[in-house]
Amino acid sequence: MPQLPDAQAPGSISLLARSASHADPPRLGSFGAVFIMLKSALGAGLLNFPWAFQKAGGVNTAISVEMVSLVFLISGLVILGYASSVSRQKTYQDVVREVCGRAVGQLCEICFCFNLFMICVAFLVVVQDQLEKLTGSSEGEMPYHWYTDQRFALFIMCLVIILPLSIPKEIGIQKYTSVLGTLAATYLCVAVIVKYYLMESHTVIITPDVSSWASMFSVVPTICFGFQCHEACIAIYSSMENQRLSHWVVISVVSMLFCLLIYTLTGVYGFMTFGRVVASDILMSYPGNDVVMIIARLLFGISIITIYPIILLLGRSVILNLMLRVQRLVLTVIWITITLAIAMFVPDMGEVISVIGGISAFFIFIFPGLCLVFTMQTESVTPRIRVILTVWGVITIVVGAFIFGQSTTIAIMELFNKF
């Protein structure tokens, strides 16, 4: 681990002007950092936002929850950047292990792996939904045959495309396809807005049901899944040319505001278009023969097919570090098989996102809160600042624990209600 230069002794570093000097030369500018943050956050989570707005009890309630959540989302990003500068580590897991200790670091690796696993499940659910629409089976346009079933098509896709892409140790296609998720999300946002204004009449029921605390918090898992870029933010911060924490605050705020704009516009207009009958995957609410939405389905499908192997690679590397005796090919086949089985038998996007939102609370709330609390025990700051930031860290941890418990409980109850 690089040593701290004499000119940057702990007592002389301001909380809002801290720089981290890493072994690798920094090379990322402000625009590039914002763009990569957007690439990390924008994606398939957008599909669930109109449904989440409906579940929350309407536009006003959902936006209110979004705005409160935004404070914690930005706070988590800033804390992680600060923790990276303190620990001199470049990955999320390494920062947590260095700052919070080995036990918390191992918990972080387990949560990281499980989160990636459930994201793969969500991706396959999205692909299955689009296959269902493209084959016309959801609307009875084609007679049913086993070989036209979307689950069979998904199995063939995993076997022929995803598995071969996932076997190599390194995946070079990432540099060419990583922008597709952002492109698909931006295209869908514009398409949903345009489709709303092209409607001949707006007669859908958008009057919300009686709002409750439970319905209000039901939007939180979708927000956590949609805005989740915290695992990647430390690598982005470590690669930045200007690593002053005040500059990182600006990057975090700008990135989250862009995400907020795209997610909110899609949520509002998608909900106003379909009202209470909006599907958990907004693309499922549009007809299968809608050319504009067919393009959106293709964009999301291609981006997911190419991103899935990258997510698998990250999760596989964590497991191989913990279980060196497991062969890479065997682990890859097991991973794809289990995620495929879950996607086939739990095809509701909302239920999958409830689980992901719960585990995301660790990365957005709990681990950043722990990093802040542990950092305040060792850093040279004034007693007042130490107390204020420690209290904020504890609040963040408590909120994260509540979101994890609430989201996971809802997901389990909805799953049991189906059997």
Automatic annotation (TrEMBL):
The Amino acid transporter transmembrane domain, residue ranges: 32-412
Membrane-spanning residues: 28-47, 67-86, 107-127, 147-167, 179-198, 210-227, 248-271, 291-314, 326-346, 352-375, 387-413
GO molecular function, one term: L-amino acid transmembrane transporter activity
Alphabetical UniProt keywords: Amino-acid transport, Membrane, Transmembrane, Transmembrane helix, Transport
Subcellular location: Membrane
Main localization, broad class: membrane
The name this protein goes by in its record: Solute carrier family 38 member 8
Organism expressing this protein natively: Lates calcarifer (Barramundi)
Lineage: Eukaryota, Metazoa, Chordata, Craniata, Vertebrata
Gene: SLC38A8
